[in-house]
Amino acid sequence: MDNKSGELKNTSYELFIGALSVLSIVNIVLLYLADDPDVSNVILIMDGFFSIIFMTDFLYRLFTAESKSTYFFRQMGWVDLLASIPLPQLKILRMFRIVRVYRLMKEFGAKRMIKEFVSNRGGSALLVLFFMMLLILEFGGLTMLWVESQVPDANITTASDAIWYVYVTITTVGYGDQYPVSNVGRILGIIIMTVGVGLFGTITAFLANIFVAPDDDETAGPETEAGDLAGLTVQIEEIRQILLAHDKTNSDLLAKMEGIEDILQKSNT
Fold it and tell me: Distance between CA atoms of 7 and 68, rounded to whole angstroms?
């Protein structure tokens, strides 16, 4: 059970990797069905991005595993490594990543994982937005290429043109070197602009909030310090009352106690 607990890194993260693995398998099918070299190139370019993410996932699991040998051999880390290599013969091994997510959901309970996914709204939202951005980048590029490549005088005619157009559009850069010329392509461009800019803007705002928001320790520090000073003031007052009750002639000590009390009260305010 301990090994499996260590294997589950984060519910949102595991579901993200699982969804990305499903998309990668879908791309394998699309790659075999595609009869257009440019369409195939879009899929291959996106698969290159996926391979980088999968390799990063493998390294993350390896270096954070309680036992690196256990992860690599018993938990099939070697399969993660091979599946991260962008070779057609090895891509099918990404099915094992989907199997892992299913096994972890079965082990820890699907309801529990979904509950944790919903409760961790910040991290879950970021990964969902990132996955949706990948979807827009791939299928927006595929659709734009399919629409524009059939139009005379079109300038979006290759895989790199389509992906470049979609990316600069959703990032609000908009160089203008690539643009749709057909009415259908412009309508599609409006959809990509509206959805993509909203997603990328939300991701940017989320990341900015992480760096700008104060730490909990910094926020709670002054309140804790004020509470401690107030507690010391009460204790000094109790000591002063005891001294008054037992020794009314010790005026010097009482004067020092009152001086300390005044200092603490000023610090507390």
Answer: 11
